[in-house]
Design goal:
Elements: E1 14-17, E2 22-25, H1 27-39, E3 44-47, H2 50-61, E4 71-75, E5 79-89, H3 94-113, E6 116-128, H4 142-153, H5 172-178
Parallel strand pairs: 5-6
Antiparallel strand pairs: 1-2, 3-5, 4-5
Length: 179
Amino acid sequence: MDSHDLATGNPAPTTLTAGVGRTVIAETAVAKVVGIAARSVPGVHALGSGASRSIGAIREVVGATDLTQGVRVEVGESQVAVDLVLMAEYGYPLQTLANTVRAAVYGAVEELVGRDVIEVNIEITDVFIPSTDTEKPASKSRLSDRLSSAKSAVTPAATPTAATAPAHGIASTETEEQL
């Protein structure tokens, strides 16, 4: 869209006039409808590119989910064009998934926004492969590996005995118990 609100620098919302009054539908509202429709399709793991998904994960931690992540819309007087970037889940045929997402977006925008969709362009940037915890052996942390190797490196000569204990009246059994 070429029109912008000069005061804010944001794209001007689209206005429909019908009978008695007007209805303004902002691009953000349409983008949220598109994002929710796309996420509702089984096989869509996430929307957005790798970098935007990372930022989105941080937003979710603080409770500020961005429903428009990975969605770009252009809203005209009576039509909408949509660009989507998504990550698919492994096991779903990608072309079938794209067609299902496209149909969901068409339906949601036409029903909820009341505009004709002229195109829905979908870019699948990645495939999510879920890890199965049962296949991976339980791994120990590096710290516990280092601690166990350090304990095995201690030789009996390094432990204090009665001959090497300080002469403060500490018996050798007390020194060994403290270790």
